[in-house]
Design a protein that fits this description.
About 15% of the residues lie in helices and about 30% in strands. The chain is built from five helices and 23 strands. The strands form five sheets. The chain has a seven-stranded antiparallel beta sheet with strand order 7-6-9-4-1-12-11, with no helix packed on it. Strands 14-21-18-19-16-15-22 form a seven-stranded mixed barrel. Strands 2-3-10-5-8 form a five-stranded antiparallel beta sheet, covered by helices on one side. The longest helix is centred in the last third of the chain and has 16 residues.
């Protein structure tokens, strides 16, 4: 069986697939790729199913040895990948020969890059998913981020190498956004009109203490609500909470499954991958749209992915 050897893990590299939705009532958030769109596209380049397990690198990539070679793609942000000192393009299928080493550097654009390998990363499934859930120490490779010396198994190749890439037109239409489109949150009517105006007209900066559980924002403080104590309730991926201090928090893939802060808005499904590419100190804005528009945008995104013009050879 083929394998990949971790010579250097980078800053924070984990095994991720599309996660394990549906276990929120049991207190387990879905985890999975922070940018699921990039994971899906990277897997398609190498012929995998959309949800095949891959390596998610954050901010700084690692160094990986392929003793038996393989077919890979780099998807998401550009981490300056190189093979035998030759720079590699993002969004392109790449053939690696026996014994070659893939080296990644610091990000040149967004926050995360995905190393997708034909056959996928083979780890034990936990609740139907290979994704690493860091907070609970479950799933992925031993429930943790990768370390130097780890050896991961790769599934058997199943098709000949094909030179192909994601079309520039599709990439332009699917590129990450810094203006996140949102729909009203469950407690949006708890906030005065002036508070909503403050939230939607100001830019917010992603702080350094953001992670896969949530992105903490700093900027204009939203005045506290006046509805009294709130009963803890289930929370959704992409919900934007307003704690007592007034600084918003975007709940992310390893979020707590319940919360007691009012939620002023929720990031739409089509823009959730953009959250995964936000870096500390990035500035974002929120734009309120209707639920009908949110559904239309998600449908449009899926139609682009399903299009025969997604990839070129």
């Amino acid at each position: 069986m083929s394998s990949i050897q971790i010579q250097s893990p980078g800053l924070f590299t984990t095994v991720q697939d599309l996660g394990r939705p549906g276990f929120g009532p049991m207190g387990l958030s879905p985890s999975g790729a922070a940018d699921p769109l990039s994971l899906r596209l990277g897997n398609r380049l190498v012929g995998n199913a959309d949800g095949a397990a891959a390596l998610e690198m954050t901010l700084v990539g690692g160094t990986f040895l392929f003793p038996e070679g393989g077919v890979v793609s780099l998807a998401g942000s550009d981490f300056g990948g190189s093979l035998d000192d030759q720079l590699l393009p993002v969004w392109t299928a790449i053939k690696i020969s026996r014994g070659q080493t893939l080296r990644m550097g610091p990000t040149r654009s967004g926050a995360r890059c995905y190393l997708c390998i034909q056959g996928g990363i083979e780890v034990n499934s936990f609740m139907g998913s290979a994704s690493t859930h860091i907070l609970s120490g479950l799933g992925g490779f031993e429930g943790r981020a990768l370390r130097k010396g780890d050896v991961l198994k790769i599934g058997q190749p199943f098709m000949a190498f094909r030179e192909r890439k994601i079309s520039p037109h599709a990439l332009k239409r699917l590129s990450p956004r810094k203006t996140l489109r949102v729909t009203p949150g469950p407690q949006s009517d708890w906030f005065a009109a002036s508070s909503e105006q403050l939230f939607y007209t100001n830019a917010y900066r992603v702080t350094e203490d953001s992670n896969r559980m949530g992105l903490r924002l700093e900027g204009a403080a939203i005045p506290p609500h006046f509805k009294g104590p709130m009963i803890t309730e289930g929370v959704a991926l992409g919900a934007i909470q307003i704690p007592d201090a007034g600084q918003p928090i975007i709940l992310f893939v390893e979020q707590q499954t319940t919360g007691g802060y009012p939620k002023i808005a929720n990031v739409i499904s089509a823009d959730l991958p953009s959250i995964g590419q936000l870096r500390p100190r990035d500035e974002i804005r929120c734009e309120k749209i209707t639920w009908e528009m949110a559904r239309a945008l998600f449908k449009e995104q899926e139609e682009i992915i399903a299009s025969g013009e997604l990839m070129v050879e």
